Amino acid sequence: MQIDTNLLIFIVAGVIIILLGWVLYLHIKIRRLLFGKNARTLEDTIFTTQKEIADLRNFEKECLAYFTDVEKRLGRSVQAVETVRFNPFKGMGEGGTQSFATALLSERGDGVVVSSLYSRDRVSVFQNH
To answer: Which of 41, 48, 58, 102 shows its CA 20 to 30 Å from the CA of 91?
Structure first.
């Protein structure tokens, strides 16, 4: 019976030491949480975090509105440019490939075509919407 009591005391002392170590570990973790860089209490930390989250949500809304506007404007801007050179008087032996047509198109296919006809005596430039 004497051995069992000593063994029991040893086990209880071990459990107490483990629990004290755990309490000390938790105390250090709580102290770090409560005494952060700028906050004096946990409540200040929570309020600061909530305010930062609200600011981030507002920033997200502003960014989405801005990017939506940019996408709309980008769809109306020039997306494709193509130039073709040609000889409009091929059968008569005049001119050459100095004439051209250039298309400036948006994403929707809207745009403008600028063309030029070159002959020996004059150059004509045309624009079509």
So the answer is: 102
